[in-house]
Amino acid sequence: MGEKMSRKPYVREVPKYSWFFRRPRYMRYMAREVTCIFIGAYTLLLLVGVMRLSQGQAEYEAFLAALRSPVSVVFHLLALGFSVYNTATWFNVTPKALPVQIGEEFLPGGVITGAHYLGWAVLSLAVLLMAGVF
Amino acid sequence: MSERVYQLEVLRYHPETDSEPHFQRYSVSCEEEWVVLDALNRIKETIDPTLSYRWSCHMAVCGSCGMMINGEPMLACKSFLRDYQGVIRVEPLAHFPIERDLVTVIDDFMDKFKRVKPYLIPKHEKPVSEGEYLQSPAQLKKFKQYTMCINCMLCYAACPEYGLIPKFLGPAAISMAHRYNQDSRDGGRDERQEEIATTEGVWECSFVGACSEVCPEHVDPASALQQVKIKSTVDWYKEHLMPWVKK
Amino acid sequence: METIKTDVAIIGAGGAGLRAAIALAEADPKLSVALISKVYPMRSHTCAAEGGAAGVIKPDDSMDYHFNDTVGGGDWLSDQDAVEYFIQEAPKELTQLEHWGCPWSREANGSVAVRPFGGMKKQRTWFAADKSGFHILHTLFQTSLRFPSIQRFDEYYATDLIVDDGRCQGFTAIEMRSGQMKHFQAGAVIIAGGGAGRMFPFTTNGAVKTGDGMALAYRAGVPLKDMEFVQYHPTGLPNTGTLLTEACRGEGGILVNKNGRRFLQDYGMGPETPVGKPQLKTMELGPRDRVSQAFWQEQKKGNMVSTKWGDCMMLDLRHLGEKKIDERLPLVRDVSVSYLGVDPVTDPVPVRPVVHYMMGGIHTDIRAATPLPGLFAAGECACVSINGANRLGSNSLTELLVFGRRAGLSAAEYVRSGASAGNDAALAGKAAAAQARIRALFEKTGGRESLAGLRKEMMTTMEDNAGIYRTEGELLAACAKLADLRRRYADIELNDKTNVYNTDLLQALELGSMLDCAEAVTVSALERRESRGAHQRLDFVERDDKKFLRHSLAYYHPSGPPRIDYRDVVITKSQPGVRDYSGDHK
Amino acid sequence: MAKSNKPIIWGTFAAGGTLSAFVTPVLILLTLLVALGHTPEMLAYARLHAFAAHWFGKLSLFAVISLSLWGAAHRLRITCYDFGIRADTLVATIVYLVAAFGSVAAIVYLSRI
Ligand SMILES: Cc1cc2nc3c(=O)[nH]c(=O)nc-3n(C[C@H](O)[C@H](O)[C@H](O)COP(=O)(O)OP(=O)(O)OC[C@H]3O[C@@H](n4cnc5c(N)ncnc54)[C@H](O)[C@@H]3O)c2cc1C
Ligand code: SF4
Ligand code: F3S
Ligand code: FES
Q1: Would you say residue B1 has pLDDT above 80?
Q2: D83-98 pLDDT per residue, tens
Q3: Which of B90, C92, C241, C523 is the most buried (most CB within 10 A)?
Q4: How many whole angstroms from B173 Cα to the centroid of ligand 2?
């Protein structure tokens, strides 16, 4: 009941560099976000491959040969892991971004996500077949 | 009915005497089926009448009792003691300034909520004497979920982007704009876009999705924000690449 | 002390206060409106209303039916001119809300859907699933944001009306966040402070419903009307008091005792109707007063199910099926599962009657005006009266809208009719006196009474002596106890003597309001020596139209019990008759 | 307040994200086989050159490379911010420049095949 103003709201700063350690869900989010580093790096690798392809057979085969190194295998394994994680997170949230309403009801999210996984599997198999892996 | 003693660690802050908040431990006897809010009420009644917090409905509909319980944004009236083990930590909602104890300053949310024009801007004006606008159950369902927001701001406390970028309009405000945009009776999307299709609007959202995970009413604000992004993107391409297409 | 000048000030931003504010802003955008509320508007207890709002809309219904249901439901204590105005305005208001975006549930053809409700002859309750009040409140709040002339003062607690020159010219209020007192100087004041259920221990009412609005007017000399009529809702969760809406029964839920008998048929609400085929205005769709009384009688006979939360009856919804429950009663399912651990889809839910609504309140006329010039009131804190001795479910939400708007329009008229300007010095003096009163409570030391202790005693007194059935002896005891509590209230001392967001101070003031209202309830109940609607006397079991077809008016006395006076009921076309809930079987 | 221009990049981000969700894992698998010494037939010079010489091959390779780059670039920009690197304009300029150069380079190389 004082006449003087005694408010002094306290602001808690969010730690700029370490906030994502606070909750597991933030860690999951950051894991999803860093997939871009691997996807980006891998895409640059593809670009180099295309460059080598355009330069001629010898250059291209040198490129393929260069891929056969332990570092490259490790990189590939990491990139594969992160890109699969990216795919899963991407498909899991697709129903949020693109809900489908048929008549009154919304298609259950699981159906949309499931359809994506199915499409992904079919496409991947097709690519592998085409590439003559099997 | 059986009572048990629970330990609560509550963040206290008193602006007239404290320079910063500190935890205070209470042991309080509660019934096992109680919620955290009941425990706080018992503390206030029997141990410490100076403890301040907001509440009213005790049924998860008024939206006043949002707090951090063991680090998660929760409604105190819907957090059951039986779901916790050991000491229960109770703090004011994250990302909002603390006025006192568990009471936060929510001016920022109230301002942002108003800015998005969260009211019906009719597509076709019609006098009341001509009766209701028709709206099919399917049209209702299209936006119904977004009307369920109780303005509890748990989503703001969960969204790291709001914590990092305080200017961000945030999940609940944008979801409410989306709610009206999706309403078959409404024609105000262009006006609302002026607010929500801005950098501080939907574009500060990086789709963390935490907002939807903590929302007690299953509003799913993350979905609203992504849909707003898609629509704004389509708008942008139409406007800049196909100027001949009239809206 | 800061003075805030405004044309109209509204205390309360629940359904009634917001509707009044919008009516004012629409009527005249040049009038400045100050909307004061002790909680943020969307926290107001209107948000808890579940079932819906009544208004005649479908072709098989008629205004006369709604009129007769309301007047009969109120045991002929309703003012019939007010009811007439109410039912005529009801559909307009509900449609207006639809135009503002309220997500009413719909029929397949896109028109609004209606559901059956207790005591109503036809289906006329508009609903938005089982969160009707929530959607009404949020629609009103959001719509109010459109109007620049409405200035909100959220989390301000009004403490005293300022009356000078024989008219109400404002009030004082504490800004919670700073603890500072503000003087609102207004051409007219509207009170929309909501109900007072919190004076009972077991209630559906939220923490905000402490009767402040009623007490503000009461202390300023305005009588409280029909305060003895306190509604028990038959179906509350036995542990928390959380409401399971009457729509449970509207959708076909049944009530059974421990023998599985649908006992309502034994209390003038039979014969039994087929399970899952609810018939309007009989059995489970009888009025609340009758159903709650039947519970009490069965309990006395030992026919209730004893649970760890006390005696209960069982609300059985299982036959509705999961789909219908999820579509029409999702909140009911959610609260039963989470607070009680019972899923209505698979098990009957134990329930018992719980204090729910105040039929009585600030005496207003059909224009929402109180006898004090410049003061208007609407919503649950007011008594117009349309609810008489027992409100029908779903009439209250509509009442907020109809009379909230009316209060806004009346206040606008009053202000524009140009009452002379206030005497600033006199008003400031009165505001300072109000501030001094609060400051005395705030600074007092050496008090011997505890806030929590007094509150508990008050609640027990009300529960034990002013419940569903009452007697002379109990009421006398309650009156004496409340008089004593009011005296002892002067001797409380705050534990918290700081400024910022002092909830200890707030609760102390709220207790003051509740004690005043509680005494008005018990003294009015003591004096009404008859049984009518929600007021049942074991010692006067009959309705006595000769003596008591009248409204009671309780006048405040600062240090003694209220003076009770009476006023005739307005009867236009429906003479008092027998309330018939036998489903046209008699 | 002005509407944001983010949609330009967000459009490619959304498209790139979707595309790389579908194809990046299997592409990585293919080159992983190379790295392990089992080069799939398709990746032999003659086969791949023939594929890239066809307009459809060119288009697919361009789409995959360019959109994935834009998607990754945009995400990287936000990730930098999330990691506390707040020089957003600088970060944005760099990552988008890389994506733009990468896209142009892809066009140049593909046109030479
Ligand atoms: C659980 C429940 C379910 C219900 N269901 C239905 C239903 O289905 N149908 C129906 O018709 N009715 C129903 N009712 C009744 C109806 O909801 C209420 O009567 C109605 O909402 C009251 O509205 P109001 O605007 O008068 O008050 P409230 O919504 O309670 O608002 C009161 C306002 O006054 C303010 N206030 C109070 N004191 C002060 C002060 N000292 N200073 C400043 N501000 C103050 C508060 O902050 C608040 O904003 C239900 C009631 C409950 C409790
Ligand atoms: S969106 Fe959900 S979490 Fe956010 S304010 Fe609304 S109800 Fe609360
Ligand atoms: S958590 Fe925040 S970043 Fe977006 S999806 Fe939700 S608003
Ligand atoms: S008290 Fe109302 S939401 Fe918790």
Answers
A1: no
A2: 999 899 999 999 999 9
A3: B90
A4: 9
Residue in B closest to D3 by C-alpha: B198
The CATH architecture to which A15-97 belongs is: Up-down Bundle (1.20)
B153 closest CA partner among B98, B73, B213, B82? B73
Ligand 2 centre to CA of C42 (Å) is 13
Report the C-alpha dihedral over residues B150, B151, B155, B160, rounded to 10 degrees. Answer: 180
Q: Give Cβ neighbours of residue C468 (< 8 Å, ≥ 6 apart).
A: C232, C292, C293, C295, C296, C353, C536
pTM (two decimals): 0.96
Domains of chain D, start order: 6-111 (1.20.1300.10)
Gap between the Cα atoms of C6 and B163, Å rounded: 38
**Cβ of residue C211 lying under 6 Å from some atom of ligand 1:** no
pLDDT of residue C396: 97
| Contact criterion met (CB < 8 Å) for B210 and A25 | yes
CA nearest ligand 2 atom 3, residue: B215
Report the C-alpha gap between A13 and C237 in whole angstroms.
42
A37: Cα separation from own chain's centroid:
9
Indicate contact of B with A: 3+ CB pairs under 8 A: yes
DSSP H stretches of helix in C47-111 = 63-73, 80-99
Q: Cα angle vertex C332, ends C328, C335, to 5°?
A: 150
Residue-wise pLDDT tens digits, C472-491: 999 999 999 999 999 999 99
Radius of gyration (Cα) for chain D, nearest Å? 17
Q: Are D42 and D48 in contact (CB under 8 A)?
A: yes
Q: What is the pLDDT of residue A2?
A: 60
C194 CA to centre of ligand 1 in angstroms: 4
In total, the C-beta contacts within 8 angstroms joining chain A to chain B are 77
Q: Provide the percentage of residues in chain C whose pLDDT is more than 70.
A: 99
Q: Which domains are assigned to chain C?
A: 2-231+364-426 (3.50.50.60), 234-356 (3.90.700.10), 448-568 (1.20.58.100)
Q: Which of B94, B206, B207 sits opposite A93 (nearest CB)?
A: B207
Going by CATH, does the domain composed of B107-240 fall within 3.40.50.300? no
- Residue ranges of chain B assigned to CATH 3.10.20.30: 3-104
CA-based nearest distance A9→chain D, Å:
25
Residues of chain B with CATH 1.10.1060.10: 107-240
Q: Residues lining ligand 3, CB < 6 A? A: B 158-159, 161, 171, 205-211, 221-222, 225
CA within 13 Å, CB half, A37: 9
The whole-angstrom distance between D11's CA and the closest CA on chain B is 6
What amino acid occupies position D24?
Answer: T
- Chain C residues whose CB is inside 8 A of the B56 CB are 39, 43, 45, 206-208
| C249 assigned to active site | yes
* Average pLDDT score over residue span B16-31: 96
Across residues A111-118, what is the average pLDDT? 97
Number of helices (H) and strands (E), helices first, in chain C? 15, 22
Ligand nearest to the Cα of C44, by number: 1
